[in-house]
Amino acid sequence: MLWRAAILALTASGLTACSNAPDTLEQRIAMLEPHISVQMPQGASEPVPAVLMFSGCGGVISVQQDYAAIANQAGIAALIVDSHGARGIGRMGARLTVCSAARLRGDARAGDVMAALAYARSLPQIDASRLALIGWSHGGWTLLDTLTLAHEGAPPAGMEALPGNALEGVRSVMLVYPWCGFLNRARGHDVPAYPPVHALLAGNDVIADPRACGDLFEAQLETGAQIDWQVLAGLTHAFDAPDEPFDPRVRHDAQGAAHAHDWFAERLASGFLAGQR
């Protein structure tokens, strides 16, 4: 039965978490590297900027490929990070454990962000001084947790230590309908004043409440963070994902997706034209 499978999965993930020693940065890179898709713009002869992509709780779907194509057209590399594949988490396992926050919460997946950034910096075809991050839903939660951990110098859950250059080269952080609920670390911890954060929220989102994000962002503005956000009226969670598994709470919207694609391209352009930090 489905409920029995869920209980077994949760128990197994809990036992695994208890038995594993914290990862070093090198171990996390080694785990992730086979599951990072590096997509380069055509004709690049010199190192190019890069945007690192982190999917929602269900795993990598075509929406990441759509945004990667936009980045490539602008002369920017895209690195799609498959956190789920690196852990052998399939679609059903993701729905039962990751989407329920029983496994791989934002503060733990933040270690993947640190490792993916370190990996990107090691690639000769990538300009390590011009990096951006984008996360959808659970990936947005992950990026907010990553920012708070870097600001405090604290290691992500499951990691031995925080890299000394955790956010080096990161000029822009983009969030698309992020989870800002009670487990989001940014609800009680500050994000740094740099890099700037840009968010796109869906007005009719009943999965990741845009009001929770608005409250969180308002609070962060008071502490000196650079955050701007848009709320797209009438759209649902995952409005830009044409192949999202059936969910009555989710509806693809072609016009909304086009707006999100333009927003993404504009944020990339403005972020990479900004002065270095």
Structural write-up:
This protein is of the alpha/beta class and 277 residues long. It has a single domain, classed as Alpha/Beta hydrolase fold, catalytic domain (Rossmann fold), CATH 3.40.50. The chain is 42% helix and 17% strand. The chain has helices at residues 2-19, 25-32, 62-73, 83-86, 91-98, 106-122, 138-152, 210-222, 254-273; strands spanning 36-39, 48-54, 77-81, 126-136, 170-176, 197-202, 227-232. The chain has a seven-stranded mixed β-sheet with strand order 1-3-2-4-5-6-7, with helices on both faces. The longest helix has 20 residues, at 254-273. It starts with a helix and ends with a helix. 45% of the residues are buried.
Please write out the topology.
Elements: H1 2-19, H2 25-32, E1 36-39, E2 48-54, H3 62-73, E3 77-81, H4 83-86, H5 91-98, H6 106-122, E4 126-136, H7 138-152, E5 170-176, E6 197-202, H8 210-222, E7 227-232, H9 254-273
Give me some keywords for this one.
single chain; 277 residues; alpha/beta; Rossmann fold; 7-stranded mixed beta sheet; 9 helices; 7 strands; 42% helix; disordered N terminus
